[in-house]
Amino acid sequence: MNSAHYHLVLNHFPIILPFIGLLVIIGGFIVKSEIVKRTAYCIFILGTLSSFAAISTGDGAAEAVKQIDGRSRNLIHEHEEKAEEFVLLSYILGLSSIAALWSSMTKKSYARYLAFSIMVYCFAVLYFAQQTSRTGGEIRHPEIRQLSAY
Questions:
Q1: Between these two residues, 116 and 5, which has the higher pLDDT value?
Q2: Of 35, 53, 107, 108, which residue is 20 to 30 A from 144 by alpha carbon distance?
Q3: 35 Cβ neighbours under 8 A, 6+ residues apart
Q4: Average pLDDT in the 59-78 region?
Q5: How far apart are CA 112 and CA 115, in angstroms?
Q6: How many CB atoms lie within 10 A of CB 92?
Q7: pTM of the prediction?
Q8: CB-side exposure of 132: number of CA atoms within 13 Å?
Q9: Which of 30, 28, 27, 22 minimizes the C-alpha distance to 47?
């Protein structure tokens, strides 16, 4: 397997894990469970680690695609730009989740506020995840490009 293969395998996790984490943290607020919220923090941290892995394989995947189809250069550049924004936000989500996990475990008074902030912030992260995944899909799927034009 080369970098393109690894990128294709890994690139879904940074997008899916924050979505799952968001559902879990919402569930933690509904059932009023710190354990469930802590689970969400761990999912967010895993999402951050997977975003590091996905972006690390991105350059190799870009080189493989550029050799196949020279017309994709603009699409690849746009995807790289969106991915850099998304991964930065993902890193912040992961670091915030580590802080929230610590504050929850040590029963800090601000733990609930931090949990709520992370939940709201996750919506922004997911918006950029969607942008990144859309631009990545457009590289090799012309049918997506046609839908994005509308």
A1: 116
A2: 53
A3: 28
A4: 75
A5: 5
A6: 15
A7: 0.89
A8: 27
A9: 22
